[in-house]
Predict the structure.
Amino acid sequence: MSGATVENGGAQAPPNASADLSEVSDWFALLKPRVMTLVVFTGLVGMLVAPGGIHPVLGVAAILCIAIAAGAAGAINMWYDRDIDAVMRRTARRPIPAGRIAPGSALGFGLVLSFASVAVMGLATNWVAAGWLAFSIFFYVVIYTMWLKRRTPQNIVIGGAAGAFPPVIGWAAATGDVGLMPLIMFAIIFMWTPPHFWALSLWAHGDYARAKVPMLPVTHGARETRRQVMIYTVALVPVTLAPWFVGFSGLVYAGVATLLGAVFLAQSWRVLREAQDETGRSLANDAAARATFRFSLYYLFALFGALAIDKLVFG
Amino acid sequence: MTPEEKTAFERRRRARNWAILLTLVGLVALFYFISMARVLRG
């Protein structure tokens, strides 16, 4: 599974004090499985709603490639961010900062999986999808992780594009092409990312400040972050209705998107108006921000689920 | 290394080796089914 296993796991290798401490679960954790869930789901929806359809075996292979590529990018991200992960409470127990996996092994693991996922995607479906998959890995690792994350409070806004690629890749895997609809799905996730992540950063700002990561609450304060969560949610709702505007989806989707949007707006309003001190720090243990973060996860699942059901059931 | 640490080390190594084996078998099956699907699809 990795270089570390080979280095320390030879039949004659005597166990010693520097023995490999990694469990299989540590290698799995490198793939950021929780992030992968959303990536797989949105990629699957992109594939299911695409015209023409795809052979089920090739569809499963494509989804597997999207999942592995996302995990590989996550592993390389953990390799690069191991210094800041070590000082953030939320990430200090990850396998690299905890010393269970050597940084070089994690990098090798991520690179091998990246190349393998792109190659298999190309062989199983088409090279348009493989190209988008490769670009999504590049975007997350180089543009977001290495370039933007430590330099600008806009890191999440631009870097959010990395998480928005899966439906485009899913669509491309099924059709060999990218048109207006996959770009709309991209735009939905792109606009959803800032309020989702900034809600989290409102209560995790201490971690980011310690790690000197310029997240919005660290650079511009909690009050401005609350305002931006509201602004991006307001901007998100009309974008979610775009599939209906362009005639791709019907009233079922439009109704669900409107309802979900109304709840998201209400949640963001709670974040904006929550009891806070003069700097915008919560006086209620960030209850509104935590609830909004949780809701935003269900929101995206429900929205993309509605998109798929509208297309597949109500056609 | 104490006997307990040695046992834990060997358990971890065995688990990793099983994971590698299952991954390789999974890849063989995946490539087989991809090939079949592409051939049957024309």
Notes: Residues 170 and 251 of chain A are 24 Å apart (CA to CA). The radius of gyration of chain A is 21 Å.
